[in-house]
Amino acid sequence: MAKETSTAPTTTVNFITWIKDNLPVVIVTIFSIILFIMIGFEGGPPQLLNVIVTGCMWALLATGLALVFGVMNIPHFAHGESFMVGAYIAYFTFTPLNKIFLATGSKFLIYLGPFLAIIAAGLAGSVLGIIIEKLVFAPLRHRTKEGWIMNAFLLTVGMSFVLTNGTTLAMGPNFRGIPRYFDVPSVEIMGAFIAVDRIVAAIISLVTIGLLWFFLRWTKLGRAIRAVSQDETGAQLVGINLDFIQTFTFSLATGMAAISGASLLFMFQAYPTVGLTPLYFAWYVVMLVGLGNVAGAIVGGFLVALLQSGTQLFIGLSWQSVVPTAIMVLVLMLAPSGIFGSEVKGVQEQ
After folding, report:
1. pLDDT digits (tens, 9 = 90+) for 70-83
2. Contact between 87 and 165 (Cβ < 8 Å)
3. How many CB atoms lie within 10 A of CB 305?
């Protein structure tokens, strides 16, 4: 009779090997669970809800940033200005529409107004993305690819200054914002009262990210974008139009950032430098999880929100940017490619 072999030792060895190969993920997961529990005990449901809502916001912004880096190898330091454009478009769309809809007395139109403003911001951001890609990045890409990362970085920094100062000249330094989109009482969830605007912003973020995931996973154009992110030369050999994919990707990412700015108009008023703080936190996210890792950026958004909330609760509000930065530096020292170990081909090739 043949001896029966046990698979238990092999399974144990494979599990230990997996832990060693994914040690940063394991450590961060354990740390996040512990911090989430501590925040729950100390701050209660309101603080946990704040983590979830804020995580949705950072995830949406960071996903667009990761998409641009993953597909186009562009370290986009003008991504915050796309957020700023979305805030301005939403303000100048919502303010007159709200006056008109309030005069009609129709609740349907009143509640429709914010969504129209956010959609308008997303469309305007997408158009802005097309213009920027065609006027700035496409000419550089067609002339030379030598030193692409550094050249693209310098271009985006220059764009940030141009857009910020141009907006200051055109609009002035004044703050333009709204107290809230929906003039309704806060909603009670698990004993915590949360503003409807924050709930809607979180839902919009989740829906947008979900649609992006479905688009990249199940559509022909989405698969083409993924192919370009993996191998530009191979994608061209199978007939993918690289110029179109690059332009479409940049437009999509810019539109997502604009939607984020429009959705958070009640929190971040429209003014020329409003995009700086969202940009910093978006970069925290993509650098923590790995440059160009779109899926990881979603997880990273909630991780950074968790760090922010924990810092405010246990250390102090003034430290909310310091602690995430320190942890990001520590993670990159131990895992230079990020928590999920993603690598960007463009960085390797330079």
Report:
1. 888 888 899 999 99
2. no
3. 23
Q: What is the dihedral of CA 284, 262, 91, 182, to 10 degrees?
A: -120
At 309-322, the pLDDT tens digits run 888 888 877 787 78
Number of domains in the chain: 1
Do 289 and 301 touch, CB atoms closer than 8 A?
no
- Residue 211's CB is within 10 A of a number of other CB atoms, namely 11
Token pair belonging to 95? 């303010």
For 107, 301, 341, the CA distances from 315, given in Å and listed in that order, are: 43, 21, 30
In a domain, 54, yes or no: yes
Number of CB atoms found within 10 A of residue 21's CB:
11
The answer to whether position 18 is within a domain reads no
* Residue 20 located in a structural domain: no
Q: CA triplet 306, 251, 76: central angle to 5 degrees?
A: 55
Supply the pTM of this predicted model.
Answer: 0.87
Banded model confidence at residue 1, pLDDT cuts 50, 70, 90? very low
Instruction: Write the CATH number for 287.
Output: 1.10.3470
Q: In terms of residue numbers, what domain contains 303?
A: 25-349
Question: Could you say which DSSP state residue 293 is in?
Answer: -
Residue 200 lies in a domain: yes
Angle between helix 242-263 and 79-104 (nearest 10): 50
